[in-house]
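Reopening closed ticket. The problem is back. First fold of the pair:
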Amino acid sequence: GWILQAKHSPSPNFGPRPANVEPELLVIHNISLPPGEFGGRSIEQFFTNCLDWQEHEYFAQLEGIEVSSHLLIRRTGELVQFVALQDRAWHAGKSCYQGREECNDFSIGIELEGTDCQPYADEQYSTLAAATTLLLREIPQMTAKAIVGHSDIAPGRKTDPGPAFDWQRYGRSI
């Protein structure tokens, strides 16, 4: 469940998937902490419950929130893994896909370091394509037809990965 090529930064924010439930859905997200700022360790610290809430005024509103994602792709293309693929990361929140609630139960979450409106880096698309290809090869029940944005499973609540994400470019690469 751990990708060898990824940096491993285990998060305590995960749990088991329900019995007999395997990942079938891939959810693409974005995150930057503080918003619009890239680099640094804030995302990693947030997903591992080590963020200093006083470090930035924005962080105060995140205090006590426990979330994670399976993977993070930094602007440099670096791949960071927080949760084993067979486990349930806490990335989707209240969500629904094709009538199925609780998408965390049957999905894998990939965060891109970015915002809805700033172009993603070439290195991110390259790493995302490689990670997606690996997931599609290793998880038989996952298909390219079941790849969505966070906004697709939580409409009105979430907007990521946003209009800056080039779905056509991504689709051609997998």
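Second fold of the pair, where the issue appears:
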Amino acid sequence: MIAGRIGHPTGRHAAFGLTAARLDDVFALLPAAISGGVLVLASLFVPAASPSRAMSGWIADLGPGALSGRGRGAMVGALGLAPSAAATGGAAPGAGTGRATARDVGRAMLMVIVASLIAATAIAGLALLTAAR
């Protein structure tokens, strides 16, 4: 239930954990933005995924607010899906219109696998560069 989360303005819980919630937002900023970018790159290699919609969904999720949604915007944009209002807090990134099907789940899994390979390659490359110095 979103309304009862600690550190969010809901009467009884408004002050409790506010610092922890804000620190979580700050520390999640960079990883969340990177994950969305990697998913945009992954959409280039997934059949029937739209890199342009992935980019617009990612950009729509870059604004202030729930940082956990950064990768979600790229994913739903690439697959042409509409995120639920509950998941977005009422604001849906991207212009998705469809509901997820079994085929979409398969494409999402492929996107996650490709994104993981891209991230692992980037990390290995950085490790080799720092080891060479």
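Update: turned out to be a display glitch only; the data is intact. The CA atoms of residues 86 and 93 lie 12 Å apart. The two ends are 49 Å apart (CA to CA). Please close again.
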